[in-house]
Design brief:
Elements (H helix, E strand, L loop, with lengths): L2 H19 L4 E8 L5 E8 L5 E7 L10 H9 L3 E5 L22 H13 L5 E11 L1 H12 L3 E7 L4 E2 L2 E2 L1 H7 L4 E6 L3 H11 L6 E6 L7 H5 L2 H14 L1
Helix pairs in contact: 2-8, 3-4, 4-5
Length: 242
């Protein structure tokens, strides 16, 4: 059996085992503080399996954690806890406006660090050794930077990452991320994301899976244009975190 068939068989078995004891996911609002004093609001989606792996979900610029609701619910239903956050200056998080200068965008990695610390503080709920991140557009670049700085992050899923986004360069962090696995997704009508995905997939030396979606657009917009993408994200984290 080749690698693709083994992965598909594993995912199918995992889903069957998890669904046998699954109940509907529950969700509730949480807040926590970053190292530099911002208050981050998030929604924690809990499945029946405790403790379980977890995924932090990062939205696009000028959007909110609500964009990840369907993915988060599906992750929790599959036995993976999900924490969707609002970046500082977005949604219910503080402060506003988001940033005083372009160079401050890197501070969003502190929001991710605080999210990971929050999850690790819940050993009853989360396996701290099995945490991944999914990010879209700006959130994808922040995910790469945060994971490069935190070796405890085990897996990435990147929707429409950029080689450079508002001075957030992705190549050096992707190299530092190293051998840990990453899924990279872009729409065929998103030329810069397509180029970026191809370049980033060649860096770091680890498992890299590339998924291109026909005319699917950018970032979390792809979730609405390609219903199979949500299933692919759940499958990815089942394979790389369980």
């Amino acid at each position: 059996m080749n690698a693709a068939r083994r992965a598909a068989a594993f995912s199918a078995v995992a889903l069957l085992l998890l669904s046998a004891t699954a109940r509907a996911a529950t969700s509730h609002t949480v807040t926590f503080r970053t190292d530099d004093g911002a208050t981050i609001a998030g929604t924690l989606y809990e499945g029946a399996r405790h403790p379980a792996p977890a995924v932090i979900l990062l939205h696009m610029l000028a959007r909110s954690r609500d964009d990840w609701q369907t993915v988060a619910t599906r992750l929790a239903d599959a036995g993976i806890q999900a924490l969707a956050i609002d970046f500082r200056g977005h949604g219910a998080s503080s402060p506003a406006p988001p940033m005083a200068a372009e160079g401050d965008w890197s501070r969003l990695t502190l929001d991710v660090k605080a999210s990971r610390v929050f999850l690790a503080s819940r050993p009853d709920l989360v396996q701290a050794s099995s945490i991944g991140i999914a990010g879209a557009s700006l959130g994808a670049n922040i995910a790469i930077a945060a994971a490069a700085a935190d070796p405890s992050i085990r897996s990435l899923a990147l929707l429409s990452p950029s080689l450079e986004y508002r001075e957030l360069r992705a190549e050096a962090p992707m190299r530092k991320y190293g051998a840990r696995p990453a899924l990279l997704v872009a729409g065929t009508n998103d030329a810069y994301a397509m180029r970026s995905v191809k370049a980033l997939a060649a860096l770091g030396g680890g498992t890299r899976e590339v998924k291109t979606l026909d005319d699917a657009g950018h970032g979390t917009n792809m979730l609405n244009r390609d219903p199979d993408l949500t299933r692919a994200l759940v499958d990815w984290f089942l394979r790389t975190l369980l």
